[in-house]
């Protein structure tokens, strides 16, 4: 996809990765519809972008019916005014590092809805309003390919969005809509609290800047790359885990005492 003068909807726009994506896309001449729950941060982001007057902000909670209806209404109004939307980036997400047995039902429902159900529903809606040829890009996680202690429900959600993206891309073959999937590894954002940052440091896990992830997003949109994993050895682990999961289990087992130490801090 040629990005100049295209319009892209970006959810999770006020987060660390979302802001970096917005900055890079706006610099390339993209008009953005920025969606996030945090209205104040959205406005600050818009003001910092190239040609801020051409971007639209929407404060909406995608985990609620009201929030999804707000998005639908905005799309309807935008199209009524003659606008077209060329791509959707499902970037909203959250996780919680915690023993699964200690998670509340409400926190599990919220996490699964934001990371899995909401992007699925928005993608379904987008099939009706995306300009064709168009693109849906779902941002997942390396944990969608590697089940990791402390992130059971998050791994489940991201594995789900990976397979959803793969299946829908195949389903839309010949229909002029591509569905892409990007799996970052640990990224330097507020999503990772001090405990998680300490855990990664002690284990020697590398993390990327939001700008690194944003550049991958731009590259995928331009090349229409079906799927991509960021980082080494995470992308290797993702492949090995499909073929020889016992090898990955053995590697993680060596980290178990350290992981449990930091999980106990969150209990």
TrEMBL record:
The keyword Oxidoreductase applies. Gene3D superfamilies: NAD(P)-binding Rossmann-like Domain. InterPro entries: KR_dom (IPR057326), NAD(P)-bd_dom_sf (IPR036291), SDR_fam (IPR002347). It comes from the Bacteria. CDD domains: SDR_c. SUPFAM superfamilies: NAD(P)-binding Rossmann-fold domains. Residues 6-186 form the Ketoreductase domain. PANTHER family: DEHYDROGENASE/REDUCTASE SDR FAMILY MEMBER 7B, DEHYDROGENASE_REDUCTASE SDR FAMILY MEMBER 7B. Belongs to the short-chain dehydrogenases/reductases (SDR) family. NCBIfam families: PRK09072.1 (NF006565). This is SDR family oxidoreductase. The lineage of its organism: Bacteria, Pseudomonadati, Pseudomonadota, Gammaproteobacteria, Vibrionales.
